[in-house]
Design goal:
CATH topology of the largest domain: Alpha/beta knot
CATH superfamily of the largest domain: SPOUT methyltransferase, trefoil knot domain
Strand order of the largest sheet: 2-1-6-5-8
Order of helices and strands: EHHEEEHEHEEHEHHEEH
CATH architecture of the largest domain: 3-Layer(aba) Sandwich
Radius of gyration: 22 Å
Number of helices: 8
Shape: elongated
CATH class of the largest domain: Alpha Beta
Number of domains: 2
Length: 232
């Protein structure tokens, strides 16, 4: 999988691509993350990437011309997808990550300032994505979210692929599999069995110590439902 990120602040990604599992996925050649400064596709002496909006109003808008040139020069595969991050985009979720993981290349356009020329959304990007109902400074953080969510679905990116099977928003147990699909993940516990917090022993639920895998599965299903209900 190749991720091509178009941004005016490529330095934001430096730590992200050089640490933890993303760095390991790059080293193992499961993914490549290529950062592209949008100013590379400008022609003027000032390397201009934005201008005032037609019709007036606050802020600056990213120009369509350099973005169009960038996308055209970066497309490498028929199985590529061009994404624009936008507050008005469709909400990114686990199903989105699964869908995007089937492509060979994701070209991601990171908006900034007041926004991006609407012609980018209509005629260049193949979809607009948002990671939540709030406004950020730009599309760089959403790009990192998509890269991480998609990467961990790729074979070899995480140590145990089985850990993907029963996690939040993608729960699939042998017990009541259809009913539990899409629920928030159940709680996890590990050693010690009892631990003092606020002067009180906080213990691991007995069912998890029972060795009865059927009862454990039922408990986890119940907890997943409760956690989903609590989350709203």
């Amino acid at each position: 999988m190749r991720f091509d990120v178009i941004t005016i602040f490529p330095e934001i990604f430096q730590g992200f691509t050089q640490a933890a599992l993303i760095a390991r996925a790059v080293k193992k050649k499961i993914i490549s993350v290529r950062l592209h400064n949008l100013r590379r596709w400008t022609k003027d002496a000032h390397r201009t990437v934005d201008d005032r909006p037609y019709g007036g109003g606050p802020g600056m808008v990213l120009l369509v011309k350099p973005i169009s040139a960038a996308v055209r020069s970066l497309a490498r595969s028929k199985k590529s997808r061009v994404i624009l991050f936008s507050a008005k985009g469709r909400k990114f979720n686990q199903q989105s990550a699964k869908r995007l993981a089937k492509f060979d290349q994701l070209i991601m356009i990171c908006g900034r300032y007041e926004g991006v020329d609407e012609r980018v959304a209509r005629y260049i990007a193949q979809e607009e994505l948002s990671i939540g109902d709030y406004v950020l400074f730009g599309g760089e953080v959403p790009a990192m979210v998509v890269i991480e969510a998609v990467t961990r679905l790729l074979p070899g990116a995480i140590g145990k692929q089985s850990s993907l099977a029963e996690e939040s928003f993608d729960f699939s147990s042998k017990v009541e599999q259809k009913e539990l699909a899409g629920l928030v993940e159940y709680p996890h516990y590990t050693r010690p069995e009892s631990f003092l917090i606020g002067g009180k022993p906080r213990r691991v639920p007995k069912v998890l110590l029972s060795g009865n895998h059927t009862e454990i599965a039922k408990w986890r299903a119940q907890q997943a439902r409760l956690a989903t209900k609590k989350r709203g």
